[in-house]
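Usage

Read records sequentially. Each one opens with the input sequence:
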Amino acid sequence: MSLPPLPKNFARAVDLSGLGKTAEVMASIPGIVVNQENLIGEILPQSNTKVVILICWSPRSTQAISLLEVMGKFEVLDTSPDGEKSWVLGTVNVDAEPQVAQALQVQSVPLAIAVIQEQIVPLFESVPPEDQIRQVITKVISLAADRGVGATPEGTAIPEVPMEPEEEAAMNAMAQGDFVAAKVAYEKWLARKPGDNLAKLGLAQTELIIRITGLDAKDILAKAALAPNDLALAIQSADLEIANGDNKSAFDRLIKLVKILEEPERKGAREHLLQLFSLVDPQDPDLIKARQQLASALY
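and closes with the structure output:
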């Protein structure tokens, strides 16, 4: 059975074979395990009455396993005493379901996607801090409620978080696959509220998607291997590695250039590295180590 066309909210899929070594998989995967059949027959129809959040993951990605644990916890917290859920969690193992991953145009794992009235809204990549994930879930439920989809069951503890007008504009733009318009909306949000962490994260993720759209991952990484000191190739390669969850390789690549390049290229490598830092959970061990290495390289 072939999948029906889905909203093209992502660029073409890139090779996911560059993920890390096999991670320790959870004993029990939370939510609904999504495959080609139930995506069409269950998940998409259900999104007309309740928000569906899909987590695209791989058992080879430790970040993906971490995100599954967080989402499973929130799914339980957002379930009323009588068992009614305020949203539906689905999981897509991109290794086991490559057709589903391709249909969703998955560019990286882990990746969170909301499905509202059979329309796809990209939420976040990597593993943001839990409080930011909580805010995203809450605001997606609020956005869906404005469209007449779902309601919060009695007994759940979902806090009320008003949606910023620019945030709603960005999410609507992303639902249409217009990442440039989403970027503009996030920039307006930050201009009005410079310290908003959710706006910063949204802008950084949107800019990453824009940068890697249309790139041939195999070609870029092969060229970078032949020219390791080429800053432009290193930046593109690091973007692709971050998108595929290989944070350590991305950080190591740019830190090496910070050590050996002269100004102004050295500054370019450092500034791009700091951009990538903003996309990763502050508690990530690779990020903590990379910050220390960058400080050592600079001072």
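Summary fields computed downstream for this record:
- The mean pLDDT is 82.
- Strands lie at 32-33, 52-57, 88-93, 111-116, 119-125.
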